[in-house]
Fold this protein.
Amino acid sequence: MVVDVEQVVPGASSLGCLLIHGLTGTPAEMAPVAERLAGRHPLWVSRIAGHATAVEDLAVTSWRDWYRSAEAGADALAAATPRIVAIGLSMGALLALRLAAERPETVAAVVLLSPAMEIRRVAPWLRRPLRLFGEVDARLATVRRLLGPLGFPKAGSDIADAEVRRMHPGYRRVPLRALLNLLHLQHGAAALAPAVRQPALVVHALQDHTCPVAGARALHAALGSREKTLVLLAESFHVVTVDCERERVLAEIERFLAGLETRGAQSSTELS
């Protein structure tokens, strides 16, 4: 089944699901989730600004552009259904977290898959400019106009399943500006986590080579949610939605959504 991107896909439930892919990725990362939930939940599969085209497009975007893409999906779903679950992978998890903090009236819960709260092998000097983020971002824009997009090569997608890794789409370079914007988004997510009080499911792989599991554990602990679950995967790498334990990931998401629907139905009964 092919699920449409950037349009509301109808579903029987009153609980909609917003699916948000990761940095340098594509909506294909969220396709298994979309296909499993299609028909049951209204869906919006986001294509984040600067992605699924050319890496030069990513180099001219910022975290604000990425967030606006997620907001567009949230707005579209909110017009179709009263409650939304924001389901994000990696950088998408940080966008989902921000949506939950800023839109508690419509975002009923969050599913944070491989949240990019920490990045492996990021040089310490890249973290220092965050206090002067706006100035650094402006200087990178000037450099980009003169020299083109600066960035770092990727060896490939962080996926344990060799066949899936070989076929997985996405950029093979990470623009420097995109990396700095991701670090800025991390900082904001850490500050916002205690304000997120909605039910939360956090899923992370112990062998993730991109984002250490310590970041997911710290995020889970920092969330203000009374109902929160941390699921750790033993065999997968970073892109858990398509990796070797994807069936377990999908089952955990289904279980989480079923619990939300049950509690929502009970609340409606109590209010009637």
User: Anything to note?
Assistant: Residues 15-271 form a domain with the Rossmann fold fold (CATH 3.40.50.1820). The longest strand covers residues 83-89.
